[in-house]
Write a structure and sequence with these properties.
The chain is an alpha+beta fold. The protein has one domain: Transposase IS200-like (Alpha-Beta Plaits), CATH 3.30.70. Helix content is about 50%, strand content about 15%. The chain is built from seven helices and four strands. Strands 2-3-1-4 form a four-stranded antiparallel β-sheet. The chain is globular and about 45 Å long.
Length: about 180
């Protein structure tokens, strides 16, 4: 499988899961450390629109700033986390599936949809309230605390904060209703 090259100024949905679907996070501390490493390795190489960390997988929506270094930065990030996780849990071997997945986001509509999809992961996978889920960018976008997220761009993408909330609520209800019909 040939992997798509991450190109400067392009937006991508980046995701992966644990090897064999196993958990890659066993505690909140693991998730905090993962986000800390993300900033250390990627802050100069990408800008972040959204993220969500589930127990056995993660999602990011990023815009590439540094085409030459970004793939190696992701590799260093994942390797650093895997080594720490393996040491903490007295395990060996691959933590993640072979390569992280990447899908280029080619238009605004898809960008809005993927941001909502990522934020709704806690509801879809754990039947948890996505609005109060700690390890997602949803709350940060709504807050006024300092962040590295592209908060202003996201709000502008959804026109305003009220519409950002409305679109998430609408998609959540739509998915929930669709689920009932299955």
């Amino acid at each position: 499988m040939k992997l798509e090259i991450l190109e400067k100024d392009k937006i991508y949905h980046i995701y992966n899961r644990g090897n064999n679907g196993e958990n890659i996070f066993t505690s909140d501390e693991n998730k905090k450390y993962f986000l800390k490493l993300y900033l250390i390795h990627l802050e100069d190489n990408v800008e972040t629109f959204a993220y969500c960390l589930m127990d056995n997988h993660f999602h990011f929506v990023i815009k590439v700033n540094n085409e030459k270094k970004v793939t190696q930065a992701f590799s260093n990030f994942f390797n650093a986390y895997a080594k720490a996780f393996n040491k903490q849990n007295d395990r060996t071997g691959s933590l993640f599936e072979k390569h992280f997945k990447r899908i280029q986001v080619e238009n605004e509509e898809y960008l809005k949809n993927v941001i909502q999809y990522i934020h709704l992961n806690p509801k879809n996978h754990l039947d948890m309230d996505y609005k109060s889920f700690t390890f997602s960018s949803y709350q940060t976008i709504l807050s006024d605390k300092t962040t590295n997220l592209l908060r202003n761009e996201i709000i502008k993408l959804f026109e305003n904060i009220e519409n950002f909330i409305y679109c998430h609520d609408f998609k959540n209800e739509f998915l929930f209703d669709k689920h009932l019909l299955e």
